[in-house]
Here is the input.
Amino acid sequence: MAHFAEIDENNIVTRVLVVDNSLEHRGQDFLANDVGLGGTWIQTSYNKNFRGNFAGIGYFYDEDLDVFYKPQPYPSWTLDTTNWIWVAPVAYPEDSLLYDWDEESQSWVEATE
Here is the structure.
């Protein structure tokens, strides 16, 4: 099965639908016109074979780079353009505890719950 993400005027994914493989080559046209959904549809890969990540609702589609990625979780995080994931300025601690990111202190703090 082929997957297609609908993007809005701000390139934000609003939904992801499945199309039969026999229609994959014309998925945009099939969803927009044949099914009558309109909109802009971009194919996404469940296995991450292309376009960075499998698109999810709320993801951003970067038209220039032709990739999908999650919204930036914190202002200090940067986008790793090899793996298309957001990376904290400080590495996650490598122990058995759970941590949450604290943007104010720019550090990982032990989770309380």
